[in-house]
Amino acid sequence: MLRLRLPFTFFPVLAGLALGAEPAAPAVVPPAELKLSAQAAPGGTAARALTNFPDGSALIAYRGRTVDGARDIQIADWRDGHWSEPRLLAPDHWITDQPPAAPPALDSRDGQAAAAWFTAADNDPRIEVSTSPDAGGVWLIPQRISEGTPDAAVSIVLLRDGSQVICWKESQKLLLRRVSPQGDIGPASPVAESRAALDALQLTVLADHDDTAPVRLALTYAAAGEAYTAAVTLPSLKELTAKDSACSCGRASAQLQRGVPLHGTVVSLDLAAGSLVVQHDHIAGVMPAMSMTLKADAATLRGLRAGQEFLGRMDTRDAEWWLFDVTLLGEPAKGKK
């Protein structure tokens, strides 16, 4: 019988730890309905990870097997009622006869995706992570997260500011580490111990809606027939953003990574209501091209005109979409005011 334990509450104050995302709501076809290629690795659904996006699309990741026997991470998209052909996420070229010990980990937030996985390519066991700004279309160069010799189990969550928090086990310790929106890797912090190999590992975001309130995570894991859970409290997103900005060596502030990027044209403005109607392009993983009403602060609205093309970002605040970080593209179309 599994026994539930509450071993501790951990309150780290770190230069970089933050939370993951809320699960999106749209229904998706179960991963078992994805017909993987004949080169896919054995292991069934236990060797796969699935995440979905607000527009109803989904992303699956698994450790496949290429024609030369490499156990590389492969992904496929669920979109418009069917799965795409699998493609490589990370060609680390791990040659092994053993089936995957644990699946990769996935999480998503708006149109952003994050993945973490174990590999022992080149006889160098390690945990690596990568992120995608466009729902899995393009992935950044993987970064090594582990420091010693890790176990295969790993979990990852995306926070509202675009940062990631990763959990894994090495040297009998479960470790947490945050990667900032700019890619800066924070310190590894121990949060639990387990002498037995992990049977399951999961990070979940409990609260990160308020920029000034501490971020709260739940860590659950199972080992040697027992299940455990722990609460992890992190600094607020405002504190983490300030530390990220101080450490990013002139790179863009983490605040600029909030929300999702969009390319659009102003249709109309309502200064009294503090809103505008925009026509925007397709936003991968979030919504199709469409016209919609956005809120904006007075300074942003004063800088816009009907017919103006722009780049910007939008984020939800109190159940409304807000436009910010606007860059104008050329002059407004003639005849517009």
What this model shows, in words?
The chain has helices at 237-247, 298-302, and strands at residues 4-5, 9-10, 48-52, 58-63, 73-79, 82-83, 87-90, 105-109, 112-119, 126-132, 143-144, 150-158, 164-170, 173-179, 189-193, 198-207, 214-223, 226-236, 260-270, 275-280, 290-295, 309-317, 320-329. The protein has 337 residues and is mainly beta. Strands 1, 2, 16, 17 and 18 form a five-stranded mixed β-sheet that branches. Strands 3, 4, 5, 6 and 7 form a five-stranded antiparallel β-sheet that branches. 5% of the residues lie in helices and 45% in strands. The chain contains two helices and 23 strands. The chain has two domains: 4-247, 5 Propeller (Tachylectin-2, Chain A); 259-329, Copper binding periplasmic protein CusF (OB fold (Dihydrolipoamide Acetyltransferase, E2P)), CATH 2.40.50.320. Strand 3 (48-52) and strand 4 (58-63) form a beta hairpin.
Kindly report the CATH topology of the largest domain: Tachylectin-2, Chain A
What is the helix fraction of residues, given as a range?
under 10%
Number of DSSP helical runs: 2
Query: Helix- and strand-based class?
Result: mainly beta
User: Hey, roughly how much beta strand do the residues contain?
Assistant: 35-45%
